[in-house]
Design a protein that fits this description.
The longest helix is centred in the C-terminal third of the chain and has 26 residues. The strands form two sheets. The protein has a five-stranded mixed β-sheet, sandwiched between helices. It has a five-stranded mixed β-sheet with strand order 8-7-6-9-10, with helices on both faces. It starts with a strand and ends in a 21-residue tail after the last helix. The radius of gyration is 20 Å and the shape is globular. It has ten helices and ten strands. It is an alpha/beta fold. The structure holds 5'-O-[(R)-(carboxyoxy)(hydroxy)phosphoryl]adenosine and zinc ion (ZN). Zinc ion binds next to α4.
Length: 342
């Protein structure tokens, strides 16, 4: 099967073409085109929905065109279009969905609607370096979502933990904003944290780290950072140190809850996904914890290019879901900005 994936839920306009072998399950990525709007939103300190939507309108057709050219195939070869239904910014989602509605009608190709968070989960299935054994515990950490799911052999998922307030990526972004570091905060804080080599006496809390459940909360940590900065007159001279301790607090919480979930559900694999999974320290800390605290459990992270928003993960989710999920006719396609994982 040849699948065209389309992703426009936030500020990345993305199209990808994958070839799947339904017998072996092998996925070959023929193109993965991403047009990022980060440079445009940077000056506003975050994504401006209206601007994002207008940029998607300008970019979507050239991006799809480039994905076909790079894949060296004609659209007539496509068997399926996979598009992000939600969750995300409504005006951003609509540009992708309306484009897909037109293409589906004109090219007579069926469409599968995909949940964006499920897309992130499937980013680990694109070219797995190690076998994914089930049950798998999957931690998705992005700018809009932070949750833990358990996936069984039949690929059914169950949410076992989620954030009660901010997402982990949001904690990075808001922390960076407080320290005037720019947007998006994750890569900036991560880079500055790497520059700090000493030991620190700054103490930040790890909210809910010892709670019995598998839920998260990051807003208290963000407020603790704010109070700490207000108290410390010389904080501007200690930015790398603040980045280091703030990042470590986020990572400690994420690692601890993931290990707890893996133990509770007898996971045979632990998978990390979402924009924050690009963080090298998090990848390293979780890999080490899986090795030290669990036995015989495989650890997987997506290739860097598939950590933040992309359309290959959407097409890949469709490749696995096509067996059990109905395609939607062009006139029934509909976005859902608050779509839940099921
Ligand atoms: O998955 P994604 O592209 O979009 C959403 O679905 O939200 O994730 C974007 C988030 C942002 O919050 C960004 O700061 C964070 O991922 N991020 C990182 C890193 N790269 C991106 N966070 C920590 N370390 C990174 N290296
Ligand atoms: Zn995302």
């Amino acid at each position: 099967m040849y699948i065209l994936g389309i992703e426009t839920s936030c500020d990345e306009t993305a199209a990808s073409i994958i070839k799947t072998n339904q017998k072996t399950g092998k996925i070959t990525v023929l193109s993965n085109i991403i047009s990022s709007q980060i440079e445009i939103h940077k000056k506003y300190g975050g994504v401006v929905p209206e601007i994002a939507a207008r940029e998607h309108v300008l970019n979507i057709l050239p991006v799809i065109d480039e994905s076909l050219k790079t894949a060296k195939i004609d659209h007539k070869k496509l068997d399926l279009i996979a598009v992000t239904k939600g969750p995300g910014l409504i005006t951003s989602l609509i540009t992708g969905m309306e484009t897909v509605r037109t293409l589906s009608f004109a090219w007579e190709i069926p469409v599968l609607e995909i949940n964006h968070v499920e897309g992130h989960i499937y980013s680990n299935f694109i070219s797995p370096k190690t076998k994914i054994k089930f049950p798998a515990v999957i931690m998705t950490v992005s700018g809009g979502h932070t949750n833990l799911v358990v996936m069984n052999e039949d690929k059914k998922i169950k949410i076992v933990g989620e954030t009660l307030d901010d997402a982990a990526g949001e904690a990075y972004d808001k922390g960076a904003k407080m320290m005037n570091l720019g947007y998006p905060g994750g890569p900036i804080i991560s880079k500055m944290a790497e520059e700090f080599t000493g030991t620190s006496d700054i103490v930040l809390p790890r909210p809910m780290i010892n709670s019995k459940n598998l839920d998260f909360s990051f807003s208290g940590l963000k407020t603790a950072l704010l109070y700490q900065l207000q108290k410390d007159k010389s904080w501007k001279n200690r930015i790398t140190e603040y980045c280091f301790v703030y990042q470590q607090a986020i990572i400690d919480i994420l690692v601890s809850k993931t290990i707890k979930a893996a133990k509770k559900y007898g996971a045979k694999s632990v998978l990390l996904s979402g924009g924050v999974s690009a963080n090298r320290e998090l990848r390293g800390n979780l890999e080490k914890a899986v090795k030290d605290k669990l036995t015989g459990v495989n650890f997987l992270v997506p290739e860097m290019i598939y950590t933040t928003d992309n359309a290959t993960m959407i097409a890949t989710a469709a490749a696995f879901k096509i067996k059990n999920k109905k395609t939607v006719s062009f006139n029934k396609l509909k976005v859902d900005p608050s779509l839940q994982l099921k």
